[in-house]
Amino acid sequence: MAVEPILQIRNLSKTFELKGADNRVLDRVNLSVDEGEFVSIIGASGCGKSTLLRIIGGLETASGGEVIFEGSAVSKPSRDRGFIFQDHRLLPWLSVIDNIKFSLPPNTPNANEIALEKLAVVGLSGFERRYPRELSGGMSQRAAIARALANSPKLLLLDEPFGALDAITKIRLQEEILRIWNAEKITMILVTHDIDEAVYLGRRVVVMGKGGIDAIHRIELSSPRNRVSAEFARQKSAIYKAFFGDLEAPFTYTI
């Protein structure tokens, strides 16, 4: 018997009102994601990729269609679906460990142990009593990742989480996310405008145009991935062609 995808997006549409007129951001989007998969979504600003992620996370409501997560329609946020934003959104008046504990259900009996465990996962052991102002940008994002992992989500949604970081820190955190993905077996969906990042992290890259999916490209690379290999350059070139509308690119159109 075939295993059902952990996430199914069916004919999803989203319309906002802008200056008295309807502005359709998403138009009948369809996509399935298997459990344990890492999917990158890439597109230009305004194409609807972040809106799509927010609807999956239950932070926005759809105008039409539906999102099915583990067999149930998504209607609100859930601790089963963790979110990491571009801004770490740590509470500045709480220490790192208290930020993580704050995300847990009230009166969680082993909250301290969970927080320390997740800080160890992201390499922040020893920094639990620091405050956000005492952390670098990369360390703050590590703390945000630990906070998202604290509830043991089955799906982790990443909305351009490395966009505000310098190039070196960004690469280090990309490696960290891959390590966590391999170790924790969490399904991950990344929204990014960085083609290199989309190819390096994703096992599939979804290319979005205005309001919908233009193409889906399956990334076939050896592990660990090598950013300077000829095969990586070939895969990235195919995404460039897809992204900029060259229909000669070898993508997969089926979902």
Search tags:
about 260 residues; alpha/beta; Rossmann fold; about 30% helix; disordered C terminus
Largest beta-sheet characterization: 6 strands, mixed
What class would the helix/strand composition place it in? alpha/beta
Order of helices and strands: EEEHEEEHHHEHEHEEH
Tell me, briefly, the overall form. Answer: globular
The CATH topology of the domain at 7-80 and 153-243 is what?
Rossmann fold
Termini separation comes to 19 Å
- The helicity comes to 25-40%
Number of strands: 10
Number of continuous helical runs: 7
Taking Cα atoms only, what radius of gyration do you get, to the nearest Å? 18 Å
Mean pLDDT across every amino acid position: 88
Stretches where pLDDT falls below 50 for ≥5 residues?
Answer: 247-255
What strand order characterises the main sheet? Answer: 6-7-8-3-9-10
Percentage of β-strand residues: 25-35%
By CATH, the architecture of the domain at 7-80 and 153-243 is named: 3-Layer(aba) Sandwich
CATH class of the domain at 7-80 and 153-243: Alpha Beta
Q: Tell me the name of the CATH homologous superfamily of the domain at 7-80 and 153-243.
A: P-loop containing nucleotide triphosphate hydrolases
Structural features, described:
31% of the residues lie in helices and 26% in strands. With 255 residues, it is of the alpha/beta class. It has a domain at 7-80 and 153-243: P-loop containing nucleotide triphosphate hydrolases (Rossmann fold). A six-stranded mixed beta sheet has the order 6-7-8-3-9-10, with helices on both faces. The protein has a four-stranded antiparallel beta sheet with strand order 2-1-4-5, covered by helices on one side. Strand 4 and strand 5 form a beta hairpin. Helix 2 crosses helix 3, helix 2 (96-102) runs parallel beside helix 4 and helix 6 (195-201) crosses helix 7. The radius of gyration is 18 Å and the shape is globular. It starts with 6 loop residues before the first strand and ends in a 12-residue tail after the last helix. Residues 247-255 have low confidence and may be disordered.
